[in-house]
Amino acid sequence: xxxxxxxxxxxxxxxLRASGAKxxxxxxxxxxxxxxxxxxxxxxxxxxxxxxxxxxxxSLGVEVVIDEKMNIExxxxxxxxxxxxxxxxxxxRASFNVLGPLxxxxxxxEVSLPGGCAIGPRPVDQHLRGLEALGARIEMEDGYVKATxxxxxxGGHVYFDFSTVGGTEHIMMxxxxxxxxxxxxxxxxxxxxxxxxxxxxxxxxRVEGAGTDTITIHGVESLxxxxxxxIADRVETGTYLIxxxxxxxxxxxxxxxxxxxxxxxxxxxxxxAQLTLTADTIELDMQGRRPRAVSLVTAPYPGFPTDLQAQxxxxxxxxxxxGTIKETIFENRFMHVHEMNRMGARIRLEGNxxxxxxxxxxxxxxxxxxxxxxxxxxxxVIAGLVADGDTIVDRIYHIDRGYEQVEEKLQNxxxxxxxxxxx
Length: 423
Ligand code: UD1
Hints:
Layout: E1 3-7, E2 13-17, H1 22-31, E3 39-42, H2 48-59, E4 63-66, E5 72-75, E6 83-84, H3 86-89, H4 99-106, E7 108-112, H5 125-133, E8 137-141, E9 144-148, E10 157-159, H6 165-175, E11 181-185, H7 191-202, E12 206-208, E13 214-218, E14 227-229, H8 234-246, E15 250-254, H9 262-270, E16 274-277, E17 282-285, E18 296-297, H10 309-317, E19 322-326, H11 335-342, E20 346-350, E21 355-359, E22 364-365, E23 368-370, H12 374-385, E24 387-388, E25 390-394, H13 397-402, H14 406-412, E26 416-420
Parallel strand pairs: 2-15, 3-14, 6-7, 10-11, 18-19, 22-24, 23-25
Antiparallel strand pairs: 1-25, 1-26, 3-5, 4-5, 7-9, 8-9, 11-13, 12-13, 15-17, 16-17, 19-21, 20-21
Bound molecules: uridine-diphosphate-N-acetylglucosamine (UD1).
């Protein structure tokens, strides 16, 4: 299993380009199953999760052509199977999103219940309830969800009990081919949902209101081909900004979207960063200073993203003062805390492990560490960058799921980081 070796203490400086958003691209690959003609998705990041989704489409018999620039062309109508096997779905929760498109387009689907990051129980009840509201017949058998429909799905009314990104996206794409109108209320409002709606509309769907809490979908009989460019990955951008801030550095990120990072940028300002923004660049300058601790509560968009919580804890570890970070989206999303404490951080968990109180120390100390989820793993890389001595981050296949060329990008910023093969 690959590991990353980081020799800490470098102030990050330089420029990099934001990759395309993993969480948009994954859903678009699933939604491509709805079209009768080939669709082309560009600016797709080269990541393990994307490869897994392509493998899943391939296993259904769908033809996928990828060029050297990661433009991906998908021909759904070459499909031969409607079953998404456990082996592929277990490693990545987003693959569950093929269920609705298969059902809406081909009338049948059998998809394993999902796995994904080890961050507490992550049920799919909202997805299934939404599909049932569109007339799907759902049965559970041996860990698989079997869905069928008698003719086309029917537009319906869906009220989500709480904000769910995957649930909102899943029902939104499925309803595009239903007969009649679907109204979804209490929807999540993440930028990736808007990106997916734009993609669906480019295929001829009629989706209105994405990005607000009520989305209306007027069903159409079929969807055609299109070309769509994926938005910038706000979590990747945020991760590098936080890493640079933690190190007291100065970086510029191109092809980014500052509009999608408002709260994060505000927290970075609070930490002492000077920010210069254009429509698609973000420059951060700490002027060589140590960050100040920040407090925050994770919340659905436009709140502070849970996917940047671990990275912000890494920043607080070496900040001046004490910061309180409360996680409200996932249970059990603080596994990085114990690893950081092994590196000399002073973090204690309170409130039934929902709140981390981080007392900043001047520097961490390098250590062998590992984590079982993508964002926790990358937060340990940040901790390693601001630690004295060497840190080895194990199990970095988690990082490869979500960060394109992580060591190359950090090396370009001056970091001392390299990949080690299996021990
Ligand atoms: C997506 C993102 C993930 C991000 C999360 C929250 C992708 C591939 N992943 O995950 O990076 O951390 O949004 O911003 O886009 N829940 C249920 N029942 C359901 C659905 C969700 O109880 O049917 C719960 C989850 O366990 C979790 C919360 O709702 O506690 C939010 O989950 P959700 O917004 O659905 O996250 P994902 O779509 O899985």
